[in-house]
Amino acid sequence: MIRISIDAMGGDHGPDVVIPALMTVATRRPDAHFIIYGQENLVRPILDKHPRLAENSELVHCDVAVGMDEKPSQALRHGRWKSSMWKAIEAVKSDAADVCISAGNTGALMAMSKFCLRTMASIDRPAIAAIWPTLRGESVVLDVGAGIGADAHQLVDFAILGTGMARAVFGIERPSVGLLNVGVEEVKGQEEVKEAGQMLREANLASLDYRGFVEGNDIGKGAVDVVVTEGFSGNIALKTAEGTARQFAAYLREAIGRSLLSRLGYILAKGAFDRLREKLDVGRSNGGVFLGLNGIVVKSHGGADSDGFAAAVDLGYDMVRNRLLDRIEADLDLFHARNPKAAGARRSDVETDEEG
Amino acid sequence: MIRISIDAMGGDHGPDVVIPALMTVATRRPDAHFIIYGQENLVRPILDKHPRLAENSELVHCDVAVGMDEKPSQALRHGRWKSSMWKAIEAVKSDAADVCISAGNTGALMAMSKFCLRTMASIDRPAIAAIWPTLRGESVVLDVGAGIGADAHQLVDFAILGTGMARAVFGIERPSVGLLNVGVEEVKGQEEVKEAGQMLREANLASLDYRGFVEGNDIGKGAVDVVVTEGFSGNIALKTAEGTARQFAAYLREAIGRSLLSRLGYILAKGAFDRLREKLDVGRSNGGVFLGLNGIVVKSHGGADSDGFAAAVDLGYDMVRNRLLDRIEADLDLFHARNPKAAGARRSDVETDEEG
């Protein structure tokens, strides 16, 4: 049985999207058990419409819901110990659940996750990993916004965390890893990135295949399975790609809408366009995974529809079934056993962006 | 008359692309005069095929051409004083030309441009500005890779440089400006970005309309006319957008190629798709402009075809006709007259990435 804790109050649509999504997952995954945290008067009526889901789940009432616009500090002040978001995370900590899913606001979810679960012993900063659709399939890209800036050691940690995720989600035994940079030559780029590259090359880890630097255009090509960067650049890359995909979709609509002939052509090619739209549907693939904490938290897109939220739940399910945390812990232990100096050289003034 | 110096040896195709491009521009712009630097035995035969261009241009023989793979330091060592790239830049310095265009390698072109033209008196670091196609038209985005990192003063300089370019190229009297960040709230992001935001808000410049922070997905929307960022994030954003556009084009080809019905649809809608492809053609719009130097240098895409190179020449022509440098100098003078402390507070350890 895989036990999944759910914050039913997160996202733009709350339980109206969350509960139907769980129904979808429950049908596909008979061994999934849900602990749903939310306001009973809002959740119960929807849950009662899905008797099969009701059988495989329990509902825990929470008075407080964290708002989508609350700052992390506000959310912590008024939502700690009692909000549906906190309770869902806490279920992972107390081992009542194996993974937590929320579509709530990213900053609050990260702040609460760090406060409740704490970072893993050898990690000093968590990362948010995104699954990025590429021409070759999918890649893991991290950090896409947990922090700002990262030193070489933290970038190496991200490489190990992302590798664990690629192994658990894609089933690749030794994922290829690239460091995001402004050129592929070894002399180029930020000092931290160059140093991390040297460390990864020298470490020669069995768990990952370090391929050197990659550039922004290599992400969409699927040049490597895991793309590692610090949170500022990673967030800008992710949002720029989303913006470009939307822009492309708008151009396509405009190009097709312009004449009767092209509209006719569109109708004939509709099946092909539906597949295209599916590939570009950011809501569907957009689940950010918090890595580096003592427990797995999956952040679903706030604007996700029921299919989108279900995809985030599926992702959480897969990571538990494939023992993501165990794999990451083993990889980290192996790395730090071989590189004992790494832990001591870390910087302590970790910037956490708690106010963001 | 607008005098344009041309490095005929740059780019993947050299004079085979450059000379036909100049012919195109010469037809459109009868007052353009070209000074072409390159190997006479390669350039002359192509020039002789275009007698109208030959009338409006002079060819200066240069023995040395800078290779596309040469590092900036190598290029400076063997190409300074004598290569076609150097000579074309030097023509701007000696006031034989108003603007220089090259499709040569970016690192070498920037290193030579800095060495030959030097940065403007009140600027300590140049920027590369890209023209980014958006849903509302086009925006200027800078820095897309001249340097790595920028302090708050340098970001403010970039805002003034980019504004001057938006005024000269788009004809907007008071362009809107945004700082690229990971959120739009004032408390978010890198310290340098927050500080630059405060400086721009307080300066309340007549030449630009500061709109606060923008995120990666705002670039493609055309949320502001000028997007300001440091070179690492800017380069990653630009290349990620290029990669996503290529990815989208590949999906489209794949979606359309799959069935007879959708191919028929494509043929009917072909006019619409041709317009779409034109909008997404990075080669056509991709001209980076070096700003902050005592002279304008336009870098055309290395892989550009004749239309792409012609677009870069057109861009250079427009900037000269609209007195870009005068505008920038006036804006900088105005800003520094009002903010006399700014110059003293700059950091001197400018990272130039000369080796990249």
UniProtKB/TrEMBL annotation, chains A, B:
Gene3D superfamilies recorded: Isopropylmalate Dehydrogenase
Pfam families cross-referenced by the UniProt entry: FA_synthesis
Annotated compartments: Cytoplasm
Annotated Gene Ontology cellular component terms: cytoplasm
Record HAMAP family: PlsX
Function description: Catalyzes the reversible formation of acyl-phosphate (acyl-PO(4)) from acyl-[acyl-carrier-protein] (acyl-ACP). This enzyme utilizes acyl-ACP as fatty acyl donor, but not acyl-CoA.
PANTHER family: FATTY ACID/PHOSPHOLIPID SYNTHESIS PROTEIN PLSX (PTHR30100), PHOSPHATE ACYLTRANSFERASE (PTHR30100:SF1)
Protein name: Phosphate acyltransferase
Organism of this sequence: Manganibacter manganicus
Gene from which the chain derives: plsX
